[in-house]
Amino acid sequence: MEDTVIDEIDLDLIAALQIAPRASFDVLARVLDSSARTVARRYTRLVDEGAMRVICEIEWSLLAEGLPATVWIGTDPGRAPEVARTLAARADTPFVSLASGAADVFCMLHGPTRADTTRALTTELPAVPGIRTLRTEWMLRRLTSTSAWRLPRLTSDQIAALAGQNTVHRAPQPRDTPLTGLERDAVAALRHDARMPFSALARTLDITESRARRTVAALLESGLLRPRVEIDPRDIGYAVEVVLSIGCRPGAVQRLAASLADHPATRFLALTAAASVFTYGGVFRDEEHLADFLTGGFEGSEEVTSLECSLQIEVLKRYWTARP
Fold this sequence. Notes:
The chain is α+β, with helices and mostly antiparallel strands.
């Protein structure tokens, strides 16, 4: 995607799609004071050139049994790229990066079953050539995700105009029954193209368009399916991406979680079964911006008792998809 130039108008479109990923081109055009043809042309160019995707983020419980683990990997000198490529080729790694600081390679691992994840961590990954050390931290609860991250570009009136367009951002609602076959087919169809028209989805699933609308509306309302924009932060002005392990006193967990989840740099936050308490993913304009954050640039920073930073040098795989 290195040949794609993303200009200010593209950034406004991306910001609008972050709020309303399934909004029609007509709606987006009205909000952005443009024409539907121009918006459609720009959207198509960004997607066709691999600069952007609009995907569906799926609740962990629908993807696999149990929760994912983060893995901080030390490699033999010079072998980090080889190890990262090997991990990116695995079907159970949603995220893989070359890193510096706490690890040479960082990844998330989520096997189909708990036993699969355990076997991968205890047997398969240690056998990968070039891996020297592994540190695993199991996630307990996702507190916020990339679907809630926003480019700070739109006015309050524009944001209000986009509110309620096809997407509900909320915590997943518990349900006593598994997904129906139709719901699973809908999830599979929308996973890589969250903007698939209801008419196309109906044809794919061999159902009526009204039933397709009802099925998707229920999945969005439940929070089990969350449409979002997938784009490399570096391509939209955020040169520095980090993963942090953050520790705090037990009594401060809820307050610090709320503060970090609301911070504009936060793209991912999870409660972790480790001494660090939180796994945090964030993006920053530059090193100075990150330095401000690490030296008390967020509310509740005085509650932090430990902090370990891993710069993401190159992301090889993001949300289950290898980077081109």
